[in-house]
Specification:
single chain; about 220 residues; alpha/beta; Rossmann fold; Arc Repressor Mutant, subunit A; five-stranded parallel beta sheet; four-stranded antiparallel beta sheet; about 40% helix; phosphorelay response regulator activity
Length: about 220
């Protein structure tokens, strides 16, 4: 599989390329946003590892252009931007995952392989699962034509589940992506958030879409 690393820190780019090459990937690199975007639009890649703070064009801008051109290839943000707002912005712009520097290469490798097993991102502006419709651009969600009154965090949680529909997301993954926290098994923040989301997305409707996989996590899918 062919990967593209868009990273302006030469030491980091070299480290990543060597490690990924040793694990069987073919790797290209670019060191600014314009070159990275050009390679994506003219080449064929299975995944892009993208920094946010790039010269010439930011990672935000690059992923936006990728999606606007209809490219569904997976994007993994690898960046020092570690706030919850940054993570949510990256996911809402169309990234598959978001890993904060400093990072463990072993974790990066696991995330890359997990993303590649999933296949291309569902990159439509609108996601449809059963009678649930999610308008990612306008931050609106509907069931059977009825608009759901979702708080911003609830919409982000629903969008995360919908983008990865059919995949069981662990509490750790959800907490990492939306709350910028290391999940503690004694903390019920994810369960509380799912419960509140269900009261709006599932409870008023006969078909339930958010399912609990006991001991693992949650999945959005139609049974």
């Amino acid at each position: 599989m062919r990967l593209l690393i868009v990273e302006d820190e030469l030491k980091t780019a070299t480290f990543l390329k060597r490690g990924l090459t040793e694990n069987g990937f073919v790797v290209d690199t670019a060191h600014n946003g314009e070159d990275g975007l050009h390679l994506v639009l003219t080449g064929t890649y299975d995944l892009v590892i993208l920094d946010v703070g790039l010269p010439e064009r930011s990672g935000w801008s690059v992923v936006t252009e990728i999606r606007q051109h209809g490219k569904g290839l997976p994007v993994l943000f690898l960046t020092a931007r570690d706030t919850v707002t940054d993570r949510i912005k990256g996911l809402e712009l169309g990234a598959d995952d978001y890993l904060v520097k400093p990072f463990s290469f072993a974790e990066l490798l696991v995330r890359v392989r997990t993303i590649l097993r999933r296949g291309p991102l569902r990159n439509e502006d609108t996601l449809q699962i059963a009678d649930l419709t999610i308008d990612l651009n306008r931050h609106r969600a509907f069931r059977s034509g009825t608009r759901l009154d979702l708080a911003p965090k609830e919409f982000s949680l629903l969008s995360l589940l919908a983008r990865r529909a059919g995949e069981v997301l662990t509490r750790t993954v959800i907490a990492d992506q939306l709350w910028d926290m290391n999940f503690d098994s004694g903390t019920n923040v994810v369960d509380v958030a799912i419960r509140r989301l269900r009261t709006k997305v599932d409870d008023p409707f006969p078909q339930k879409l958010i399912h609990t996989i006991r001991g693992v996590g949650y999945v959005l899918e139609e049974h």
